[in-house]
Amino acid sequence: xxxxLSSTQVADELGISRDALNSEIRxxxxxxxxxxxxxxxxxxxxxxxxxxxxDREGGNxxxxxxxxxxxxxxxxxxAAETVRAYGFSPENAVSDVYVQIPRTLLILVARMESEMRRxxxxxxxxxRIIAGSDDPRHNEExxxxxxxxPVHSLVFPLETDPRMRSYRLRNAAxxxxxxxxxxxxxxxxxxxxAVMRALGxxxxxxxxxxxxxxxxxxxxxx
Length: 222
Fold this sequence. Notes:
The chain has helices at about 5-15, 20-25, 45-55, 65-85, 95-130, 160-185, 190-220; strands at about 35, 40-45, 65, 185-190. With about 220 residues, the chain is mostly helical. The protein folds into 2 domains: about 5-55, no CATH class; about 65-220, Ferritin (Up-down Bundle), CATH 1.20.1260. The strands form 2 sheets. It has a two-stranded antiparallel sheet. Helix 4 (about 65-85) packs antiparallel against helix 5, helix 4 runs antiparallel to helix 6 and helix 6 (about 160-185) packs antiparallel against helix 7. The radius of gyration is 21 Å and the shape is flat.
């Protein structure tokens, strides 16, 4: 029996939010499902989803815009520090939100930077191979310099209420969503696609936690 991916799984595979995917489906801009069960459940085969991803991301084209990647790295790091500050709860100082999500985001940042460095070195190496060894500089070790913008950590404001925490966390989730949307324009490779999907998953976790904060607040005021 063939397995199909749900809309939530498809969103994760494409690195977009569930809301964004559902909006595309409602507007008729998304590929029709491969299966519909009970008139409600829509499913897409893994082959269909892979083709959608290739179409959206330009197939096997590799791209690296250093300035663009630097900007996205700073955006992810900033989102991580926002989650570290506003995901913290005095009642639960070891929350997975406060600890695990920033850690994961910074690991993904390291993967983005590593992939950028790999593509930069690869580009320079092929340029030397094509030019040949007539230029004596091509037989020397050459540093490639670039800087990443600094990002400050934030300290949790003690008087911040849950609704403001939810607001700031949603801002961080939106920041990550914008990174996921822009990444194919500035960093395109198999590794970049994997990072993009992982960033989308972390964004959804942040959104879910913001929802929990608001639901708890609404329940306490009901």
